[in-house]
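User: Show me a protein chain along with its predicted structure.
Assistant: Here is one chain, sequence first, then structure tokens.
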Amino acid sequence: MKIETRAVHAGDRRRAPEQIPVATPLYAASSFVADSAAELDRILGTEAPGYCYSRYDSPTNAALEELVRDLEGGASALACASGMSALQIAISAALLDRRKSIVAAEALYGATIKLLMDVLNPFGVEVRFVDICDLEAVRRAIEEAKPGCVLMETISNPLLRVGAMPEIARLARGAGAALLVDNTFATPMMVRPLEQGAQISVHSATKYLAGHGDVLGGLVVCDREHGEIVRSLSRTYGPVLGPFESYLTMRGIKTFPLRFERQCANACKVAQWLSAHPRVERVYFPADPKHPDAAAIAALFPKGLYGAMVSFELKDAAKADVFALMDRLKLIVRATSLGDVHTMVLYPLIASHRNLSPKQLQRMGVRENLLRLSVGIEGVEDVIADLEQALAV
């Protein structure tokens, strides 16, 4: 054969070794060679197991999906290109054979609210917001809206409210609605929504699961009823996670329990310290015995784990004062996202909740003096020292 032909084909398409590698390999191929046309036909028709095209499935993604499915206790999982793409697939699956109506928590990530109101609502999906921590209000909203989907966050962003998930699941199920839970803040270390009655759980894998600030990804975990729907929608929408991102996410998850336990312990100490500081008006943290959702937290969270997010309000502060404080921080990084190994500070009004109206912000309780901390794995004394010097001015 010509050298041009040998350069293209030699060494390629080798069979996998009989011995199993100790770490999941990275399969970067966009497509897979079948042994025959008939086999390719069966794989494309989902009549036989196998891989044909990475938008449909790939070995690296399948390994990550198996891992997350096991952690969350679901029947099926899908790896997506971002947390928002995972959420859109999940909502589509929940509404496919149900009434195009959503009852959603008032307290949600800003981009989630934008998805509901600026994308889904113009396409005819009715959206009704409710205080998800008020069970009577949730009951009335479900009864009146007759939704196909109820949407909530396990721990709300950014004020860290916690709804009574099993009771909300019961109300949704009684109305024939699917309960969809964004479990990013809690992670499966704290809560497994499907075990609490939810049908679908989503994660921004970018956050705690991958955990190192080098991956953008999302995950959908669902029950058996929604598994095939999610997979079919994924083949059409095409929000597939790349194999390298899947590989990095799997690698990150290996140390996720160790990281998250440390982050939660650090967050408790940071919250306690902030609570005693004279320049801090209020601290939002689920371990607070005076937390408005203390009963739901006690029923839902394992003892000693309250998450690694801490939000706080500066006393007598406006936007300029918040900016000045953020600029004085030397160790804590000013950045969007959360769940990384390093501690991060965010001002919700310019980031996660930037595009919400004053009325929406007021309804959520997000004020001009609010900051959000994602606590990392550093020595907590160093994190507190940085906050102390920044607050001292």
